[in-house]
Amino acid sequence: MVQKACIFDLDGVITDTAHYHFLAWQRLAHSLGLPFDEDDNHRLKGVGRMESLDYILAKGTTAYSMDERLALAQQKNEDYKTLIGGITPADILPGIVEALDWLKANNWRIGLASASRNAPQVLASLEITGAFDYVADAGAIPKGKPAPDIFLDVARAFGLPSSQCLGVEDAASGVAAIKAADMFAAGIGDADILAQADIVLPSPEGLVEKVLKPF
Ligand code: BG6
Ligand code: MG
Description:
By secondary structure, the chain is α/β, with parallel strands linked by helices. The protein is built from nine helices and six strands.
């Protein structure tokens, strides 16, 4: 049998941390007198920490030095870490454990391609670190989503061609990254926002039957 790999995004796919990123960014934006709404949140899904900060700061006219920007990013991250402090395995989204079990039983490689530097901590809190054969190090990959680099990094680690890899994403930038990597893209969420995906499910429920088995 030909080896296949499933490469997951984390925030918004495996657990609903996308909401905590939203709350922490909104709090920072409002503290600076800048607007931040659900539309901004969709744009920032999958986007790295400093790029997200710069998107928010561009809504105002104040120029910030590098040190000030780093301090603001750190402030958001401290807030975010407080918000995710109470995460437990009960926060794994429905359908994910079933998908991980099915992948393992069918000898797929299982990878993580999250832009978050907090990913190892979140996986540990969810108690699913051991389910992953490879976790990409976001800090070591300069070009973030929508660049394909992080998905290609996982494929390279598995020694697999893109044609044997399937990516799962909740962000438009993430789906774009999967397609730029020439992989099959399963979107989780709104079909209009994730129009570039090969298939879109409203939630991870149904991944096994509708996405994994047919691939
Ligand atoms: C992505 C999230 O997974 O990680 C983004 O979708 C977030 O919202 C990015 O900004 C970076 O995360 P972190 O935890 O390194 O600040
Ligand atoms: Mg995501």
